[in-house]
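Lecture notes, continued. The same structure-token format from the folding unit now serves as the input rather than the output. Read the line below as a description of shape only.
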């Protein structure tokens, strides 16, 4: 065998060994070299879908790739989360997580096909939106204190509506009950719209709901806001106090969103996604759209988002177990 042949064979063998040792993302070329998918756990047209599409328009050019929105609704987000948890950890599949990511383990227990803490890795938080405590325009209680006094004077007589068992509005009302010590009956519905209809009609006493669904009813004088459950007031309703300002600190419940990827996604890819997604959040169109939805943009590091999810999980697991709430 000639010296040239030996060198050729050695080079080929070395290249094969090196290629087998490299992660798939590295073999595919510089990241990203093909479209990136945003998996949305809710149907098109909803708040989370609007957030995803708005950010994708500004994040796509930063990444240099098309972003495809992949709606996978159902099972309180578990279909989408389970799908992404099992996806290739190459940075091409992200999920927009929300509140149910921190509540589903307590609600569903062993029925989940994934572990949110070990199968998904945070990239960045998007932001959050307060829930609004709404009553009918002619409801006797004008303030949170009025509502609490009314409930205590008539134990078990007041009712509250929600978009379903275990939803953000349901859990906000449960923490409200626990902090204020009132007794009110939960009336679950299949969605926020039918729930609000019965509150408007006076068939149900109150509801906690997000601004996207509630603001049109407030502007149409069909519902009245007496408080918001966020740490600060809602910019769309500057005259409406927080529940804490109304005299009941500890009632904080928000709707939040953020990006996650499958576990084992390379750190450099997570860093790239974090950089470009945070950049997109500072785009004026994104800011304006989220502001109109009543949202407060947060952004931040993967560690920031990881710590936030952990604190939310501890908080809501305690509420769920205290109230003995089970998924339906």
């Amino acid at each position: 065998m000639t010296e040239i042949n030996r060198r050729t064979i050695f080079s080929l063998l070395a290249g094969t060994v090196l290629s087998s040792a490299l992660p798939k993302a590295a073999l595919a070329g510089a990241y990203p070299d093909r479209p990136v998918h945003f998996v949305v756990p809710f149907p098109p047209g909803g708040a989370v879908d609007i957030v995803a599409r708005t950010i994708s328009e500004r994040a796509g050019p930063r990444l240099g790739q098309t972003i495809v929105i992949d709606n996978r609704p159902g099972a309180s987000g578990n279909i989408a989360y389970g799908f992404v948890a099992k996806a290739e950890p190459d940075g091409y599949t992200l999920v927009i997580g929300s509140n149910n990511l921190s509540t589903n383990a307590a609600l569903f227990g062993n029925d989940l096909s994934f572990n949110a803490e070990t199968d998904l890795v945070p990239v960045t938080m998007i932001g959050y939106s307060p829930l609004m405590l709404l009553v009918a325009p002619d409801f006797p209680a004008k303030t949170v204190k009025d509502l609490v006094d009314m409930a205590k004077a008539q134990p078990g007589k007041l009712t509250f509506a929600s978009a379903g068992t275990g939803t953000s509005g349901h859990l906000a009302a449960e923490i409200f009950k626990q902090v204020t010590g009132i007794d009110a009956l939960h009336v679950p519905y299949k969605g926020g719209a039918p729930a609000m209809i019965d509150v408007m009609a006076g068939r149900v006493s109150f509801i906690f709901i997000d601004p996207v669904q509630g603001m049109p009813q407030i502007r149409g004088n069909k519902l009245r806001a007496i408080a918001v459950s966020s740490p600060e007031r809602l910019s769309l309703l500057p005259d409406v106090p927080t529940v804490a300002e109304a005299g009941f600190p500890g009632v904080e419940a928000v709707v939040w969103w953020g990006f996650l990827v499958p576990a084992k996604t390379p750190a450099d890819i997570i860093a790239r996604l974090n950089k470009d997604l945070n950049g997109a959040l500072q785009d004026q169109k994104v800011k304006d759209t989220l502001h109109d939805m009543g949202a407060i943009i947060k952004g931040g590091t993967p560690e920031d988002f990881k710590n936030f999810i952990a604190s939310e999980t501890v908080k809501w697991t305690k509420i769920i177990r205290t109230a003995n709430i089970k998924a339906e």
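Point for the exam: Residues 30-129+256-323 form a domain with the D-Maltodextrin-Binding Protein; domain 2 fold (CATH 3.40.190.150).
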